[in-house]
Design goal:
With 198 residues, the chain is an alpha/beta fold. It has six helices and seven strands. The longest helix has 24 residues.
């Protein structure tokens, strides 16, 4: 069983990253919190990581033109990351990054894949699409990342009911709550060898 050494990639508030950090701190599962990278210098994720004493870096086209993904690898290698956790990272990783980490790159998506995935399907767009399609159930999916948006192997899903009076905003709130449970749960199962990733 591989010891989890987590590296986070996040662009915005980093609440999923925080949920994972809290789960490790309270002993829910074992992992090393190695480093966090954001492509947004003002992101809440960087602030959260620094507060927790996790090495935190801003890496973007501003700081490393044309070399963002290469820099991500360099930083994560320095901190011996073996599992990359995307927590609201708004940039598509190049296939060579996924290969470098032997396919051990995870993402969380705010819908029940394979429905409502793909390019442009992020944030509130997803919840709008779910409601417009008249779905009765939505949820969150943790999956492995591959070269295609939201097409990697599904590891685990959690559902929420879509109520007749739900708005994209209210649905987003419900889904985010279960994301905060689902991501730590998947990582726990990986740490215990109950979910096998490459």
């Amino acid at each position: 069983m591989t010891e989890l050494r987590l590296g986070f990639l996040a662009s915005h508030s980093g609440t999923n990253m925080q949920a994972i950090i809290d789960s490790v701190k309270n002993g829910y599962f074992k992992a090393h919190l190695c480093a966090a990278i954001s492509n947004n210098s003002q992101s809440g994720a960087l602030e959260r990581a620094r507060k927790e004493g996790i090495p935190a870096f801003h890496v973007s086209e501003k700081t490393h033109p044309g070399k963002v993904d290469q820099q991500v690898i360099e930083i994560f290698d320095k901190y011996q990351v073996n599992t990359v956790v995307l927590a609201g990272y708004m940039k598509k990783l190049e296939p060579f990054v996924i290969d470098h980490f032997n396919g051990r790159v995870l993402n969380i998506h705010p819908a029940l894949l394979p429905k409502f995935g793909g390019e442009g399907m992020y944030g509130i767009n997803v919840h709008k699409a779910v409601i417009e399609a008249g779905e009765k159930v939505s949820g969150a999916t943790v999956h492995l990342v591959n070269a295609d948006y939201d097409r990697g192997r599904i590891l685990m899903q959690m559902e929420v009911e879509v109520l007749p009076d739900d708005t994209p905003e209210s649905l987003a709130e419900k889904v985010l709550k279960i994301e905060h449970k689902l991501y730590p749960e998947v990582l726990k199962k990986i740490s215990l060898g109950e979910i096998i990733i490459p």
